[in-house]
Amino acid sequence: MHDIIDSTPIGGAPWQSFSVYYNGEVHESDVEASPWKLKGFEVWYRDPLIVMRNQLGNQDFAGEMDTAPKRVFDHNEKRRYQDFMSGNWPWRQANEIAKDPANHGSTFCPIIMGSDKTT
Predict the structure, then answer these.
(1) If we measure between CA atoms, which residue out of 6, 23, 24, 15 comes closest to residue 42?
(2) What SS3 class is residue 16?
(3) Phi then psi for 38, rounded to 5 degrees?
(4) DSSP string, 18-79
(5) 30 C-beta neighbours (distance < 10 Å), count
(6) pTM over 0.70
(7) Residue pLDDT, tens place only, 22-42
């Protein structure tokens, strides 16, 4: 399945990796209590700029992204939080960005990127 995903025309974000190590002081008592301090860990990632360029350029996502924060209310006028752009933080960020006239007409495009061990 990963080969199929990676072979799509919008692909081209190869996996990269680096290793991280704890570089603080290690005491004898740490060896048993915190063995992770003694070994390295590989971090695998794809270049986030390439991933976002591919995602934003993918027609499958056209019409699926919110281009502005929103406030959603139910029939009782109670505020409803249904996704990221319906929250308070995006609204405050958009207000802050709008203070600069040079930003008028821009689109607020926050990016949430993450992964877990299963991906």
Answers:
(1) 15
(2) strand
(3) -105, -5
(4) EEE---S---HHHHHH-GGGGS-EEEEEE-HHHHHHHHHT-GGGTT-S-SS---EE-TTS-E
(5) 15
(6) no
(7) 999 888 877 788 888 889 999
